[in-house]
Design goal:
Blueprint (H helix, E strand, L loop, with lengths): L4 E5 L5 H15 L6 H9 L3 H10 L2 E7 L2 E9 L3 E7 L8 H17 L3 E6 L4 H6 L3 E2 L4 E3 L4 E9 L2
Antiparallel strand pairs: 1-2, 2-3, 3-4, 5-8, 6-8, 7-8
Length: 158
C-alpha cells in the first residue's frame, strides 16, 4: 500500500470530488455493460448533490487522499451495505481499495458489530470484490426501474 495514503471520514465538502471520481470510474468500467436507461440513472445518481444527500441520510463515506488529492472512496449504507468503492485509475493496483474497504469494515464493526456485508457488483468489479473476500450469492441480474446489471455479493466477517 502507498505510505502517503491518508483515509478519513468524508464531509459534505468532499461531495463534488467524490462525484467526479465515481463518474469517471463508472464511465470507464461500468457503463459499457449497461443499457441506456441504466447509464443515465447511474450518472444522475453520482452528482455532488446526490452524494451530499446520501451523506445527510446517514451513508458513511471514507475517502483516501494522497498529498491532498482524493484518490478513492468507499461508502456504506446502514453499516452493512457497500454502496461505493472506487479508486482513481491512476492509483489502482496500489492497495488503496483494500485499505478503504478495511477502514469501512472496521468502522461498521465498531459502530454496529456488523459481521455480514452486502453489495451489488458490476461485472468489472466482481473480481476485485472477490479479492477482498466477497462471494457471489447469485447470478448477474438486472434490477430496478433502470434494469441495472449487477451481481449480488456478500462478505462474512470472522
Amino acid at each position: 500500500m502507498n505510505d502517503r495514503l491518508r483515509i478519513r471520514l468524508a464531509t459534505a465538502d468532499d461531495a463534488r470530488a467524490i462525484g467526479a471520481l465515481v463518474r469517471r470510474g463508472t464511465r470507464r468500467d461500468i457503463l459499457p455493460d449497461q443499457n441506456a436507461a441504466a447509464r443515465a440513472y447511474l450518472l444522475a445518481s453520482m452528482t455532488a448533490r446526490a452524494e451530499r444527500a446520501r451523506m445527510q441520510e446517514g451513508y458513511r463515506y471514507h475517502v483516501g487522499e494522497i498529498e491532498g488529492r482524493l484518490v478513492g472512496v468507499v461508502a456504506v449504507r446502514d453499516d452493512c451495505h457497500v454502496y461505493r468503492l472506487f479508486v482513481s485509475a491512476r492509483f489502482q493496483g496500489r492497495g488503496i481499495g483494500r485499505a478503504l474497504w478495511r477502514r469501512a469494515l472496521a468502522d461498521c464493526r465498531r459502530r454496529a458489530g456488523t459481521r455480514k456485508f452486502t453489495l451489488n457488483a458490476s461485472a468489472f468489479a466482481v473480481p476485485v470484490y472477490r479479492s477482498l473476500g466477497f462471494v457471489a450469492v447469485g447470478p448477474e441480474r438486472s434490477s430496478g426501474p433502470a434494469r441495472i446489471r449487477t451481481t449480488p455479493m456478500v462478505y462474512r466477517a470472522r
